[in-house]
C-alpha cells in the first residue's frame, strides 16, 4: 500500500499514461470519414515543461514557422497557440462568445485570483466589467490617480537621487514594483503602503508572496502534476498555499479596516476604487477580495514590468534618452536651470502628457517587444473553424501570444525584432494606432483592457519625471538580460543601473 502512495511511482505512471494518450491522439487526430484540417502538431505539453525557462522564445520560434500550431495535452483537449492577427480577431471579437476562460483557466487561476475579472465568464464577468468600466472612465479617478502618480514619482526620484549622489547601483525593477504597488494600493484601496521606503513590513511581505504566487501559478500551465501536488501538499503547491494564505489574510484585513472607516465617516470623499465599489453595496468580502487582487496584478506587475523593459531599452539606446528628455522639457515648459524634481512633476499636466508623443511611442514599442502579459489563453466552448481554415475542437485551450506576435516579420516587417519607436509615429511625429489584433498588449474586443489609459498615464508620468531629472546607464553592459517565466514579464534577477543627475536639474 505504501508503494502505491509513493509520489514518484504515481508520477511515473502518469507519465506513461500521458505519453500513451498523446501517441493515440497523433495516430487518430480526427474523426474517420471527415475531411477536417487541424493545426500542425509540434510537440506535447511536456515541451512547455522542458522549455519553461525560455518559454516565450520557444513559442516565438514555433510561430515563425507555423503562425498557429498545436501541442498535445493528455487528459484534456489540445493546446493551440496562434500569432495570426486574423485568428486573434476571430477569438477576441468576431466569435467572442465562443471563447472564454472556461473551467480550465479558472481552475488554474482561482486559488490566487478567485472569481476576479481575469478568471470568470458570463454574468460574473459582465457585472465586474460594467462596474469597473464606469469607475475607470470617471474624471474623479483620473485626477486622483494622476496626483498619486506624481507624488510617488517624486518619492522614487528622491531615492534615485540619493543613490546617484553616493554612486550606488540601483535595482530599478524592484523599485518600480514597489512604487507601482504603492500606486495601486492608494488608487484602488486608498491605503498608503509605502513599500518603497520599507516602512511597511507587512506590505513588503505581501508583495513578495504575491510575486512568488504569480510565478507558481504560471508554472501550473506547464506542470501536468500540479493537481496531484496540491492534493499531497508538496513542492511548489505547498509553497503556493502558504503564499496565498498571507495574501488573503492581508487583503481581508484591509477590507475590514476600510469598511469600518467608511462607516465611521460616511461623508468622506470617496476617490479610491474600493470606496466606490462599497458605495454600490458590494459587501461580500470574498468577492471584493477577488476584484482587488485582479486590480493589483493588473496595476502592479504590468506597468512595473513595462517600465523595467523600457529602461533597459533606453539604456541600450542612449540617444533615445536625450530625445525623450528634450520632449519632456518642451512639453512641461521647464526650461530654467536648477529646477527641482517636484517642480518638474507639478508641471506634468494632461496637456503636457498629450504632447509627449515620442515617449508614448517608445513605451508602446516596448510593449510590442516585451508585452507585460506575454501569452493569454481562452477555452473553445464549441467546435469551430478559424479564419485560416483549420478546425478547433470544443474544449481546446486557445492562446494568442503577444510576445511571439511582436517578433513576427509577417506582421511588422523585416525589422520586427528591432526597437524602433518611430514605427508608431506619422510624418508629423504624431502617434498612430495599430490594430489591437496586431498589437495585442492590451487585448482587444469586449475584453480590451479597461486600464489602458490609466497605465499609459502612470508610465508616462514616471518616465517623464525620471528622464527629465536623470541620465541612466546599465551597471554591467555585458550582462545578458532575460525574462522570468511568470504570468507577467519580469526581468530575471532585476535591472541594475546607475543614475546621473542632469546638469539643469537640482535634484530633490
Describe the structure in your own words.
There is one protein chain. By secondary structure, the protein is of the alpha+beta class. 56% of the residues lie in helices and 10% in strands. The chain contains 20 helices and 15 strands. The strands form 5 sheets. It has a 6-stranded mixed beta sheet, with helices on both faces. It has a 3-stranded antiparallel beta sheet with strand order 5-14-11. Residues 1-33 have low confidence and may be disordered.
List the defining traits of the structure above.
508 residues; alpha+beta; three-stranded antiparallel β-sheet; 15 strands
How far apart the termini lie comes to 69 Å
Percent in strands: 5-15%
* Weakly predicted, low-confidence segments: 1-33
Strand order of the largest sheet: 1-2-3-10-7-4
Judging from the principal axes of the Cα atoms, what is the shape? globular
Tell me the major beta sheet.
Answer: 6 strands, mixed
- Give the count of helical stretches: 20
Helix content: 55-70%
The overall strand count is 15
Q: Structural class per helix/strand content?
A: alpha+beta
Please state the average pLDDT score.
87
Q: Compute the gyration radius: what is it? A: 24 Å
Amino acid at each position: 500500500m505504501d508503494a502505491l502512495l509513493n509520489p514518484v511511482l504515481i508520477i511515473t505512471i502518469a507519465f506513461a499514461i500521458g505519453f500513451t494518450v498523446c501517441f493515440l491522439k497523433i495516430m487518430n487526430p480526427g474523426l474517420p470519414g471527415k475531411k477536417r484540417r487541424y493545426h500542425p502538431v509540434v510537440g506535447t505539453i511536456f515541451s512547455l515543461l522542458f522549455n519553461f525557462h525560455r518559454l516565450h522564445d520557444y513559442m516565438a520560434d514555433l510561430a515563425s514557422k507555423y503562425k498557429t500550431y498545436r501541442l498535445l495535452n493528455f487528459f484534456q483537449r489540445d493546446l493551440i497557440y496562434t500569432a495570426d492577427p486574423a485568428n486573434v480577431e476571430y477569438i477576441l471579437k468576431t466569435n467572442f462568445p465562443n471563447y472564454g476562460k472556461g473551467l480550465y483557466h479558472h481552475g488554474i487561476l482561482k486559488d490566487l485570483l478567485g472569481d476576479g475579472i481575469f478568471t470568470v465568464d458570463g454574468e460574473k464577468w459582465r457585472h465586474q466589467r460594467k462596474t469597473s468600466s464606469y469607475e475607470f472612465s470617471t474624471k474623479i479617478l483620473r485626477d486622483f490617480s494622476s496626483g498619486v502618480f506624481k507624488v510617488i514619482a517624486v518619492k522614487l526620484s528622491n531615492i534615485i537621487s540619493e543613490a546617484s549622489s553616493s554612486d550606488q547601483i540601483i535595482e530599478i525593477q524592484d523599485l518600480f514594483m514597489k512604487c507601482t504597488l504603492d500606486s495601486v494600493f492608494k488608487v484602488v484601496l486608498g491605503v498608503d503602503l509605502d513599500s518603497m521606503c520599507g516602512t511597511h513590513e507587512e506590505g513588503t511581505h505581501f508583495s513578495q508572496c504575491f510575486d512568488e504566487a504569480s510565478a507558481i501559478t504560471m508554472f501550473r500551465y506547464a506542470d501536468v502534476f500540479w493537481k496531484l501536488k496540491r492534493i499531497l501538499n508538496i513542492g511548489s503547491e505547498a509553497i503556493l498555499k502558504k503564499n496565498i494564505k498571507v495574501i488573503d489574510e492581508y487583503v481581508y484585513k484591509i477590507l475590514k479596516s476600510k469598511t469600518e472607516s467608511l462607516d465611521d465617516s460616511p461623508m468622506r470623499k470617496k476617490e479610491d476604487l474600493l470606496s466606490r465599489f462599497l458605495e454600490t453595496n458590494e459587501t461580500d468580502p470574498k468577492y471584493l477580495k477577488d476584484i482587488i487582487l485582479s486590480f493589483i496584478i493588473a496595476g502592479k506587475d504590468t506597468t512595473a514590468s513595462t517600465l523595467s523593459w523600457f529602461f533597459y531599452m533606453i539604456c541600450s539606446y542612449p540617444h533615445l534618452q536625450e530625445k525623450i528628455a528634450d520632449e519632456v522639457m518642451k512639453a512641461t515648459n521647464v526650461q530654467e536651470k536648477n529646477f527641482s524634481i517636484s517642480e518638474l512633476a507639478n508641471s506634468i499636466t494632461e496637456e503636457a502628457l498629450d504632447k509627449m508623443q515620442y515617449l508614448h511611442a517608445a513605451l508602446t514599442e516596448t510593449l510590442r517587444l516585451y508585452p507585460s502579459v506575454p501569452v493569454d489563453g481562452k477555452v473553445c466552448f464549441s467546435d469551430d473553424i478559424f479564419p485560416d481554415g483549420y478546425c478547433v475542437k470544443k474544449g481546446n485551450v486557445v492562446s494568442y501570444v503577444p510576445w511571439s506576435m511582436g517578433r513576427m516579420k509577417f506582421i511588422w516587417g523585416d525589422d520586427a525584432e528591432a526597437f524602433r519607436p518611430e514605427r508608431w509615429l506619422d510624418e508629423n511625429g504624431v502617434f498612430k494606432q495599430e490594430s489591437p489584433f496586431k498589437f495585442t498588449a492590451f487585448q482587444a474586443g469586449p475584453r480590451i483592457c479597461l486600464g489602458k489609459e490609466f497605465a499609459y498615464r502612470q508610465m508616462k508620468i514616471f518616465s517623464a519625471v525620471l528622464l527629465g531629472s536623470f541620465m541612466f546607464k546599465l551597471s554591467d553592459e555585458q550582462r545578458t538580460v532575460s525574462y522570468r517565466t511568470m504570468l507577467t514579464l519580469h526581468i530575471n534577477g532585476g535591472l541594475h543601473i546607475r543614475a546621473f543627475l542632469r546638469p539643469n536639474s537640482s535634484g530633490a
